[in-house]
Amino acid sequence: DAGVIQSPRHEVTEMGQEVTLRCKPISGHDYLFWYRQTMMRGLELLIYFNNNVPIDDSGMPEDRFSAKMPNASFSTLKIQPSEPRDSAVYFCASSSSYNEQFFGPGTRLTVL
Amino acid sequence: AQSVAQPEDQVNVAEGNPLTVKCTYSVSGNPYLFWYVQYPNRGLQFLLKYITGDNLVKGSYGFEAEFNKSQTSFHLKKPSALVSDSALYFCAVRDLNTGGFKTIFGAGTRLFVKA
To answer: Which of A60, A100, A107, A108 should we substitute to test contact with B (largest number of B Cβ atoms within 10 Å)?
Structure first.
């Protein structure tokens, strides 16, 4: 298995632009997580899905952030409009039931 | 509410010496505990986990961790450190009794192993 796949690996955009991050979980995993990592705040859980249904989105910072999982093999995290304080590394992870999470390589987002 | 603390921002150890990275946790129910490692510009990688059973858990790359319920700790250990063990280590906890899959990660401890 190729593991969790994220794209793009790097994204540089200007304030106000829309940003879409993509994730393909490991086949057969029924949980998908989106995290944000910054030096100041560490690793934060933004949202997680179970069987494509959002379960807990309490970590989503504000309405500018949205996440979807239209099917078991694809999820997106969208920021609209983006702001400089959104600059971070965004990780997607997947797991099956009570097992450990497998993380993707991350997307490094820079908002100018 | 569940929480996890890693009291040391950084741990320095000489190659060949034993290492310990500390972690304490707080949950209202039974804990499900993890250690992950992150190398530069990479995602987190799973090292080991504790759900139930033997308090000493063995994981990848020679690492082990000891669950101590009375001290609510789950320290990561390795008998002999390698330079290649230098990385950022995260302790994480999930509360089995909440019914959710929300995993809380500690702030991370950076391990430096000097040759």
So the answer is: A100
